[in-house]
Design brief:
Layout (H helix, E strand, L loop, with lengths): L3 E2 L2 H19 L4 E7 L3 H17 L2 E7 L5 H13 L5 E4 L9 H6 L12 H8 L8 H12 L8 E5 L6 H10 L3 E5 L6 H5 L4 E4 L17 E4 L11 H5 L4 E2 L6 H20 L1
Parallel strand pairs: 1-9, 2-3, 2-4, 5-6, 5-7, 7-8, 8-9
């Protein structure tokens, strides 16, 4: 039996409807500053999409574009200016940045109260301790998608393939907070197919097309594919869909949820500042 699709587009549309109402009640336009360094075509597309979504929910998207040769010091200084700007509610540094930049240093220049993408150490710690910080946007979107389909998490074995500090690691912590038992896998995991086969809930977050073969999937598992490269996810989709109970498409699954959570958290940041 083919898996049911976890439709991120439909769920994100409902979230954005709520954000639109929240923004209207706020009485002013929240401002999301997006910082783009260089000319990466995919990054430009993502920033343009986020600007379009901002307009639809009544937010202002303020674009800051910096040349590809920008240094870490220059980027950090610009982000600190935005952090100090009272008119800015949220800051997004588009990932990835050029190779010469210390991305972690740039992330840490974002004021925690404006870290609506959940990339700073402060946000990570607050999320881990359930102290009300901003969740990393993609893991937060994954959790919202699971909740929308009322997928039980307590007691389930969740396997996260990937250990990025803004995707794999926070996804595992959010699942752990919901009483799932979490296993992290990565490039040095021994016998990855066996670990994947144990998963009741699989989160693929590597960015390597079709890394995870469909016949590795446990029958009835929930498959969340957060990978994206060349318009393809980390999971061999067709074969996995024959075994899973639920599965996210790529595109149209996790991606729209990331943007929805980003804007929801921007609205929350504006509300908290009011």
């Amino acid at each position: 039996m083919a898996a049911e699709i976890l439709d991120g587009r439909a769920v994100s549309a409902k979230i954005l409807d709520l954000v639109t109402k929240d923004v209207a009640d706020l009485g002013r336009k929240p401002v999301l500053a997006t910082v783009l360094v260089g000319d990466d075509p995919a990054s430009r597309t993502y920033v343009r999409m986020k600007a379009g979504r901002c307009a639809k929910v009544g937010m202002e998207s303020r674009r800051i574009e910096l040349p590809g040769q920008t240094t870490t010091a220059e980027l950090v200084a610009r982000i600190r200016e935005l952090s100090d700007d009272p008119s800015v509610d949220g800051i997004l540094l588009q990932h990835p940045v050029p190779h010469q930049i210390d991305e972690r240093a740039a992330f840490e220049a974002i004021a925690p109260e404006k870290d609506v993408d959940g990339v700073t150490r402060t946000s990570f710690a607050m999320m881990a301790f359930d102290e009300g910080g901003f969740a990393s946007a993609t893991p937060g979107g994954i959790m919202a998608l699971l909740d929308a389909y009322e997928i039980p998490l307590s007691g389930k074995h969740a396997v996260v393939v990937g250990r990025s500090p803004i995707l794999g690691k926070p996804a595992g912590l959010l699942l752990l907070a919901r009483d799932a038992t979490v296993t992290y896998c990565h490039s040095r995991t021994t016998d990855l197919p066996a670990r994947v086969a144990e998963a009741d809930i699989l989160v693929a977050a590597v960015g390597r097309p079709a890394l995870i073969r469909g016949n590795w999937i446990k029958r009835g598992a929930v498959v969340i594919d957060a990978g994206y490269a060349d318009n393809t996810g980390d999971v061999e989709y067709e074969a996995a869909a024959e075994r899973a109970s639920f599965i996210t498409p790529v595109p149209g699954g996790v991606g729209p949820m990331t943007i929805a959570v980003l804007l929801a958290q921007t609205a929350r940041a504006a509300r908290q500042k009011k």
